[in-house]
């Protein structure tokens, strides 16, 4: 098992900075579920982390809060749930650190403008044709 959690190409968090808690899983499972602590919760404290630089820390605090948490209880065994929880934690941290691409403003094309206006004309014509005839229509 590696000793760090790879979040992005440039960021890996040491497992020592991630708190892993095991508890009893909820839901069905019979006698086995009553005695095994297979549910795993992974908690990452953003403020206490030495792996993050200041920009990453500020972004994570703003978008995810002081603690990022992930829970897994689908698998029957604690080891598999641990893997799932760490994987989900990495996904959450990566999503919070992702900077969306800036939108480049564009103009609608001439054909798009004309098509939109033509659609509006057709709709108006359809509604006009549904009206009661007036005296002028004769």
Q: What would you call the shape?
A: elongated
Total helices: the number is 4
Uncertain stretches of 5 or more adjacent residues:
none
Major beta-sheet overview: 3 strands, antiparallel
Q: If strands are numbered along the chain, what order do they take across the biggest sheet?
A: 3-4-5
Oligomer: single chain
Fraction of residues in helices? 40-55%
**SS class:** alpha+beta
Total beta strand runs: 5
Task: Give Rg in angstroms.
Answer: 28 Å
Q: Beta-sheet strand percentage?
A: 15-25%
Order of helices and strands: EEEHEHEHH
Termini, distance in Å? 87 Å
Name the average pLDDT: 89
Describe the structure.
- This protein has helices at residues 30-35, 54-64, 78-97, 110-130, and strands at 4-6, 12-14, 18-23, 39-45, 67-72.
- The chain has 138 residues and is an alpha+beta fold.
- Strands 3-4-5 form a 3-stranded antiparallel β-sheet.
- A hairpin with a 5-residue loop joins strand 1 (4-6) and strand 2.
- It is elongated, with a radius of gyration of 28 Å.
- The termini are far apart.
- The mean pLDDT is 89.
């Amino acid at each position: 098992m590696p000793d760090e959690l790879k979040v992005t190409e440039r960021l890996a968090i040491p497992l020592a900075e991630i708190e892993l808690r095991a508890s009893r899983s909820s839901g069905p499972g019979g006698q086995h579920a009553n005695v095994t602590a297979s549910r795993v919760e992974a908690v990452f404290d953003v403020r206490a982390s030495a792996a993050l630089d200041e920009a990453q820390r500020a972004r994570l605090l703003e978008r995810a809060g002081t603690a990022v948490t992930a829970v897994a209880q689908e698998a029957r065994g604690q080891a598999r749930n641990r893997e799932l929880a760490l994987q989900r934690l990495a996904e959450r941290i990566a999503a919070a650190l992702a900077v969306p691409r800036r939108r480049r403003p564009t103009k609608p094309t001439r054909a798009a403008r004309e098509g939109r206006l033509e659609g509006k004309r057709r709709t108006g014509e359809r509604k006009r044709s549904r009206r009661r005839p007036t005296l002028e229509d004769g």
